[in-house]
TrEMBL record:
<protein>
    <submittedName>
        <fullName>Predicted nucleic acid-binding protein, contains Zn-ribbon domain (Includes truncated derivatives)</fullName>
    </submittedName>
</protein>
<dbReference type="InterPro" id="IPR007922">
    <property type="entry name" value="DciA-like"/>
</dbReference>
<feature type="compositionally biased region" description="Low complexity">
    <location>
        <begin position="30"/>
        <end position="40"/>
    </location>
</feature>
<feature type="region of interest" description="Disordered">
    <location>
        <begin position="167"/>
        <end position="186"/>
    </location>
</feature>
<feature type="compositionally biased region" description="Basic and acidic residues">
    <location>
        <begin position="174"/>
        <end position="186"/>
    </location>
</feature>
<dbReference type="Pfam" id="PF05258">
    <property type="entry name" value="DciA"/>
</dbReference>
<feature type="region of interest" description="Disordered">
    <location>
        <begin position="1"/>
        <end position="73"/>
    </location>
</feature>
Amino acid sequence: MPEPRDPVEPGEPPPEEHEAVPHDPTGLSLARETARALGARARRRRPPPSGERRRTVDPVSSGAHPDDRDPQTLSRAVHRLVDAKGWAAEVNVRTLLARWALLVGPTLALHSKPERYADAELTVRTDSTAWATQLRHMAPQLVAMLNEQLGADTVRFVRVLGPDAPSWKHGGRSVRDGRGPRDTYG
């Protein structure tokens, strides 16, 4: 009856047939043959593609204490993103403008709303010209208050706009330099 063989791993060439080797009590020939097989397998491995290296773990940052590789809370990840992109001043302005009623008072907040912030200029829209005048008189104090809370020169100017004027264009076809508003609406 033939002797059973060891299974062959996929991708490995079939074992070479050797002549009957006299029994080696020290196992030296078996060790040499195993080392030769392992060396051949290691030589057949492909090197990693160029530019791709194995990541090594920094033994200093590894351990039981929290580090940057641990899962982060969403708020911490957002704060890190805001800091990395340099959006901190913009986010602070938007947060403060979301609390407009606390900044200017509830009465004035009912009749005005911040529309835009760009290039250190805050644009505020009011619902009547009287409230626009009130807010224009208050603009220097508003700039000082915003800069105190947000940092120097975050807001340099407050532009106050009154209500939008009504449109006199009605329909898809109208005269470009038409009549416009007159002293009577009839």
